Amino acid sequence: MTSVTSTTSATATAAPTTGDLVLSGVSKQFGAYHAVRDLDLTVPEGAFFALLGPSGCGKTTTLRMVAGLEEPTTGTVSLGEQDITRLRPYKRPVNTVFQNYALFPHLDIFENVAFGLRRRGVKDVKKQVGEMLDLVELGAFGKRKPNQLSGGQQQRVALARALINRPQVLLLDEPLGALDLKLRRQMQIELKRIQTEVGITFVHVTHDQEEAMTMADTIAVMNAGVIEQRGTPTELYDLPATTFVANFLGQSNLVRAAIVGKADGQLVVDVHGSKVTVPVPRCRVTEGEIWMGIRPEKVFLAPAGAEQNGGNALRGATVTDVSYVGVSTQYLARMPWGQELTVFEQNTGARDTLTVGDPVDLHWQPAHTFVLDAAQDALAGVEDIADDA
C-alpha cells in the first residue's frame, strides 16, 4: 500500500495536547454482578493501548465507561486535567469505532466521513475529508456507497469518520472481528500505521492475543473484572505474572515443581527428580511448591541421550503426537511422570522430523524459564481461549 504524504501526515497529527487517560478506582455493577472491580489504569497520551481478555472479563464495559455509554458505580475517569466521569458521550473528546462500522448506507463515502464536520456546522469540508480519505488510503473511493466496498474498506471509512473529528482518544471495540483472517492481519498493520501517523491515543478492546500483540505498545490483560498484568507485549509473553496470563497470551507448558536451593543468582528447582535452574528475576515466588513455565517454541527436542551445551534438560520423554502446520511442526512429548508437554519447532529443514514413539530429551535455556505460584490454577486461561474460539 502507498504511504501517506508528508502534508497529510502533518495535518493529521494536529491533535490537541491532552494528557493521559486515567481511570481511578473504577467499578461497575449490574445488580449483584461485578463487571469491573476497583480498576486503576493509566493510558499514556499518544499510546496504542490494548485491553485484552476473554468474553465477559469487563473490557468492553471499561471501554463504554470511557465513552460515556455506561456510568461507573464508583471511581473517576479523567482525561488530562479534565474529569469526564459524568459528561454526556457527545461532550467528551472521545470517539468510538465499533465492530459493525455503522456507516450510513444512503450516503457515499465522502459524506459518511464528512458527517461529523457537517453536524458541527463546518462549511468547507472538502480539504479535511480528502486528507482523511488519503490517510486511510481510500482517496479514490469518495463517490462510492458503503455496499460497494469490502469489509476492510468499510472499516477504514469508519475509522476516517471517527478521526476527522480530531478526538483526543479513539476507542476501538473489537473493530476487526467481522473480517476474515487474512484481511484482519492486514488491517492490524494498517491500524498501527494510522495511529502512528495521527499520534492520537488509541484504546483497543479485543479477545485476540495476536491482534493485541501486533498493534499495541502496552497491553492490559483483564480477567473477571480486574487487570491481571500490564506491560509491553514482550514483557507479558516472556515473563507472565499469573497462570492466566501465561495460558491466555500464547501457550505455556506448566510443570509442577519445587524450589530446593539457590546458587549464583539462580534458583535450583526439582522437577520430578530432575534439577534445573531459573534466574531469580524470572521467579514470582522464591520458595516452596511452584509452577515451572516454559514456552513451547523455547524447547528443543533432541534424540534421547544426545548431549547439548549447557542449559536445562528433562530426559526420558517419548513423542506422542506430530502435527505439521507449515511454518512449524508441533510435537507432544510424554514425560516420565505422565504429563504431555508441547514443543514447537520451526521447519527450517535443518534436520529430519521426529516421529511418534521416538525417545527424546527436552532442552532449553534457564533464561527462558519462568516460575509462578503453585496456588494458582494451572488451567486458568485455557478454558477462556476455548470459549472464545
User: Which outline best applies?
Assistant: elongated
Mean pLDDT: 90
Kindly report the spatial arrangement of strands forming the biggest sheet.
6-7-8-3-9-10
Weakly predicted, low-confidence segments:
1-17
CATH topology of the largest domain: Rossmann fold
**SS field, number of helical segments:** 10
Beta strand %: 25-35%
The tally of structural domains comes to 2
Instruction: Please provide the ordered H/E string of secondary-structure elements.
Output: HEEEHEEEHHHEHEHEEHHEEEEEEEEEEH
Describe the main β-sheet briefly: 6 strands, mixed
CATH architecture of the largest domain: 3-Layer(aba) Sandwich
Structural class call reads alpha+beta
Q: Terminal Cα separation, in Å? A: 31 Å
Oligomer: single chain
CATH homolog superfamily of the largest domain:
P-loop containing nucleotide triphosphate hydrolases
Q: What is the radius of gyration computed over CA atoms, rounded to a whole number of angstroms?
A: 25 Å
The level-1 CATH class of the largest domain: Alpha Beta
The helicity comes to 10-25%
The count of DSSP E runs of length 2 or more, i.e. the number of strands, is 20
Give a written overview of the molecule.
The protein is α+β, with helices and mostly antiparallel strands and 389 residues long. The protein folds into 2 domains: 6-238, P-loop containing nucleotide triphosphate hydrolases (Rossmann fold, 3-Layer(aba) Sandwich); 243-388, RNA polymerase II/Efflux pump adaptor protein, barrel-sandwich hybrid domain (OB fold (Dihydrolipoamide Acetyltransferase, E2P), Beta Barrel). It is 24% helix and 34% strand. The chain has 10 helices and 20 strands. It has helices at 6-12, 59-67, 109-119, 126-135, 151-163, 181-198, 209-215, 233-238, 243-248, 382-388; strands at 21-30, 33-43, 48-52, 74-79, 82-83, 94-97, 169-173, 201-206, 218-223, 226-231, 253-263, 266-271, 274-279, 288-294, 300-303, 312-324, 328-334, 340-346, 359-364, 369-373. The strands form 4 sheets. Strands 6-7-8-3-9-10 form a 6-stranded mixed β-sheet, sandwiched between helices. It has a 5-stranded antiparallel β-sheet with strand order 13-12-11-14-20, with no helix packed on it. A 5-stranded antiparallel β-sheet has the order 15-19-16-17-18, with no helix packed on it. α1 (6-12) crosses α4 (126-135), α3 packs parallel to α5 (151-163) and α4 (126-135) crosses α5. The radius of gyration is 25 Å and the shape is elongated.
